[in-house]
Design goal:
The chain has 173 residues and is of the alpha+beta class. It is built from 4 helices and 3 strands; from the N terminus they run ααβααββ. It starts with a helix and ends in a 26-residue tail after the last strand.
């Protein structure tokens, strides 16, 4: 991590401490307390995302348009990692594949359980190399699913003949 990112993370932790203190000591007006709590949650989510994204021994997908495509990208990344670790660390391919099947089944179950199968997402799967009975293999620790929901809808008039909405005037979708 670069110096500027480290500085930003330190500053965000200072902001979080100020928010916690302000909420605990009731320094924020009741009318904005909810917004301050939402800011606290968003900063914590950002910090978690940064922390997880830079961890070693992870297999990561890009943001994908659905769970199916995220799992496809995870599979490709897994097999690339497996091929590399078979050569470099002498992990057992078959035992590692058994662990992979268990892990991916749990990820699919979680997508289905939460109804996120058509939601854009990114998966970060963390692993370690274990040894059992003289056999090294890839063992998975946990998976983080970053899912992205609709933030809002913006209407943009693109027709030169359409009337422009006046400020404060509602437009229908």
């Amino acid at each position: 991590m670069g110096e500027t990112l480290e500085d930003l993370l330190k500053q965000l932790n200072v902001v979080l401490d100020a928010i916690e203190t302000g909420i605990r000591e009731k320094k924020f007006p009741e009318t904005i307390r909810l917004y301050v709590q939402q800011l606290d949650r968003r900063i914590r989510e950002f910090l978690t995302a940064v922390e997880v994204s830079v961890q070693e021994n992870t297999i990561q997908t890009p943001i994908s348009p659905s769970s199916r495509s995220a799992l496809y990208n995870l599979r490709k990344a897994y097999y690339a990692t497996l091929s590399r670790l078979v050569k470099e660390a002498k992990v057992d391919k078959n035992r590692s594949l058994e662990e992979w099947k268990k892990a991916v089944s749990k990820i699919i179950e979680e997508y289905d359980r939460r109804g996120l199968s058509e939601t854009p997402s990114k998966i970060i799967l963390s692993y370690e190399i274990r040894e059992e009975g003289g056999t090294k293999y890839i063992a998975f620790k946990d998976a983080r699913i970053f899912y992205f929901e609709l933030e809002g809808i913006l209407r943009v008039e693109v027709s030169p003949t359409s009337s422009q909405a006046q400020p404060g005037q509602a437009t229908s979708l």
